[in-house]
Design brief:
422 residues; six-stranded parallel sheet; four-stranded antiparallel sheet; 18 helices; 55% helix; elongated
Length: 422
């Protein structure tokens, strides 16, 4: 069965569409169960991040894969199709490796995507959506990512979306930053990275808001900032100058109506997908709202020095994907050979079984019938291998005999001393 990749990402679709095409983390197990229950889909992994939503699967037909992907979202197929991509076999393997190595990321060489892919693979393992093909594929993918990072400079001077958000504000609104009160919404990895960059050139005041206030306390202890719950946002917004938001919420956390009440000028950078800040908030005169897609220019400026490393990484991936496809082809050939051999044996057995039943029906002695059945079936099963082994021996092809001994678990023959002298 072919390997398919189907999805959209930051290169093919704007954030307004990406936020509508996501796989909710709490529903991944349900998605995977539905996939595996589909006829002709045997293995699957779902990867959903702020910059991509992708389905990796082993399936019979591309149309079925695309149809399943489109049906999971409230987006008409005609609206989604122009932004989608679908790769098969070698192209699919190369794409998965590119993603794992950070070559397909908005931030070239970023390492967070590898952790996200490992988590997605683990989730599929737990759900029973991984078989022989994907087990081998993803082990090769993870090894390729490790090798690319150790043998190239793709990860040198790492840039992340979080650092890009901070630098975007510093570069474009430097007059605001040092005397600003900055509100960070969320308490995940992205916010942790932001705090590290803010710690180097800190603003006047930092506040972290999270749905569960206790989960953000660790940041207050580590970075000496304030922590509030999301319920407290309306009270603190009038005190804020800059907002950077990065949560996994499916719905906007800060609405236009909440911001309309505030009269203070606010600079907002929303790097969440789906977006945390209601897009309509940009209509307010005192709000300057930027999304993750607005960071592309600053990110591209920071990765130009790694283009040579990226080219080297792509060449490595090309070779590794070729090697993996050779292995996959051999697996397919072995599977087909086994199926053909089993059918051949079953057909021979059925012929002799039919003959034995007829003999029993006419009253022949059961013991004689069973003996005859056993003898005839044994002769038919051994006829072709015996002829081939004799021919190999006649031609001096001893390697065939050695393979046969291993294939059929035949013990080493005891060679007669006199025969050995002949």
């Amino acid at each position: 069965m072919p390997i398919f990749v189907c999805g959209i990402n930051h290169k093919t679709a704007p954030v307004a569409l990406r936020e509508r095409v996501t796989f909710a983390p709490e529903k991944i197990a349900l998605y995977l169960a539905d996939l595996i229950n589909q006829e002709n889909i045997s293995e699957a992994v779902l990867l959903s991040t702020c910059n991509r939503s992708e389905l990796y699967c082993v399936a019979d037909h591309e149309a079925q894969v695309i149809d399943w992907f489109c049906r999971q979202h409230r987006v008409p197929y005609d609206d989604l199709a122009p932004f989608m991509y679908c790769y098969q076999d070698r192209d699919a393997v190369e794409h998965i490796m590119h993603v794992a190595c950070g070559l397909d990321s908005m931030v070239l060489g970023e390492s967070e995507i590898l952790r996200q892919m490992k988590d997605a693979f683990s989730e599929s393992c737990i759900c029973g959506a991984i078989g022989t093909v994907f087990n081998r594929l993803f082990q090769e993918v993870f090894m390729a990512a490790k090798e690319v990072r150790t043998s190239t400079s793709i990860g040198a001077c790492p840039v992340s979306v979080s650092s890009a958000a901070v630098n975007f504000i510093k570069n474009n609104y430097s007059e605001l930053f040092s005397q600003s009160t900055v509100l960070l919404i969320g308490a995940g990895v992205a916010v942790d990275l932001m705090m590290r960059y803010l710690k180097i050139h800190p603003p006047k005041r930092i506040v972290i808001a999270n749905r569960n206030r206790d989960n953000a306390v660790i940041f207050s202890e580590q970075y000496h900032c304030e922590v509030i719950s999301l319920k407290e946002l309306p009270e603190i917004l009038p005190q804020i100058d800059i907002i950077i938001s990065a949560t996994g919420s499916a719905l906007p956390i800060v609405t236009k109506s909440m911001l309309a009440v505030c009269q203070n000028a606010l600079l907002i950078v929303d790097i969440a997908v789906p977006r945390d800040i209601e897009p309509a908030a940009a209509e307010l005169s005192h709000i300057r709202l930027h999304s993750i897609d607005d960071l592309k220019i600053i990110i591209q400026q920071n990765v130009r020095g790694r283009e040579h490393a990226a080219d080297k990484a792509r060449e490595m991936i090309k070779q590794k994907s070729e090697d993996l496809m050779i292995w996959l082809s051999s697996v397919a050939i072995v599977a087909m050979t086994i199926r053909a051999y089993r059918k051949q044996v079953e057909d021979l057995c059925q012929i002799e079984l039919t003959k034995a039943r007829r003999q029993l029906e006419r009253g022949d002695n059961p013991t004689e019938v069973l003996t005859s059945f056993s003898y005839a079936l044994t002769n038919k099963l051994l006829h072709a291998p015996t002829m081939q082994l004799r021919q190999a021996g006649h031609e001096g092809r001893l390697e065939i005999l050695q393979i046969a001994q291993k294939l059929f678990s035949i013990p080493e023959p005891i060679v007669d001393a006199e025969l050995e002298l002949i």
